[in-house]
Amino acid sequence: NKFFTEQGICSRREADRLVESGVITINGRVAKLGDQVKLSDAIAREGRVIPWGKPNLYIKYHKPVGVTTTSESHVARNIIAEVGHPERIFPIGRLDKDSSGLILLTNDGNIVNEILRAEFGHEREYLVQVDRPFDQAFLDRMSCGVVILGSVTRPCQMTRVRRDQFRIILTEGRNRQIRRMCHALGYRVTTLHRTRIMHVTVKGLRVGEWKELKSQEREQLMQAVGRSRI
Predict the structure, then answer these.
(1) CA distances (Å), origin 216, targets 5, 6, 41, 67, 175
(2) Annotated catalytic, 108?
């Protein structure tokens, strides 16, 4: 099942189900759970060979303030140069220059829309500080939706942390959404830090540090996007 997740084909659970059903073969032999494979092996489903490709990379990065989320090499402090990975990767979504926190990068072009499309409702969590104390009415209005860019934002989860700081969980990702929502209600965001995307958190990453997702995180990512390409 490691082959399937590393190739970005499906989750380990789905791979195990396929193996148990007897439709996966290795060099013409029906595969068993726990089988090991190598590059020279021909892996097939119902007789159709699954081509080997480069293992997909999924990276989590603790973006500092000042780094621009772009693949354009001429932009100073662009995220690709800051990460410095030897493989060609690109960011999944964006996090504006004045914000910090978690962002994912990958070489898997197929997964980007699966994560970003609003109708999938994948959660993103932020810690936000504004320029002055707010009241319960502010929390209520934010959580119910605010008109920005000509339409109302989706309902979201709001939790007070301090008199001027809150946590917010969004299930959509409009351009500078939190800053625009706060501005519409008369507040200015002073710091914005993303702590989580779906099940992946920034915990354990120093500012400016990146790591490849652990096998469990990859597995959960495949499950979250319903990935099955075989």
Answers:
(1) 10, 12, 25, 28, 30
(2) no
